[in-house]
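Predict both folds.
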Amino acid sequence: MNLVKKKPGEVQKLKKHIQNHADLTNGCLFPETDVDIIIAIVTRFLHDHVFQKVLCGISPGLLEAITYVETSMLSNVEPKRG
């Protein structure tokens, strides 16, 4: 609570971030979801800023081959039986 008093601007940033994501806003409506909301925010930050979406230093031909394999794996997924 002391941090909230020392840096009220940070609280506004957090509120703005939550309001930009409809699922987080909806999650705030349920009791005892504060930890889950924080986990979701940290996970999204890691996904967006830490894990790279582009492979650096890879040749364009190899990147195209990897993309083709990923796409074909996603399109050929069948639901598990029983």
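Second protein follows, with its predicted structure tokens after the sequence.
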Amino acid sequence: MENREMFDEINALVGAVAKAMEIGEGEVIAAIEQGRLGMAMITDEHGRNCIEVTQDGRTARVYQGAIFRPADQPPADPDEDCGGGCSCGH
């Protein structure tokens, strides 16, 4: 019998990494197998836990319910809505 204890969690992580890096889930698996994609569990500068993903010189952070890329900039005023469609959480 197959041990699928963490199957759903790993599937969700692969999907989040694919979205964060803007690649397909198959590409995520291939990049992991080839050693081109790294993941580290970190605590960011605000004390929040996340997974930092690096691939081919690109970096993204996957939080529960959100993705942050260094190029993403939140609105200057925290009460200002960015209009949606980005990964800042609005």
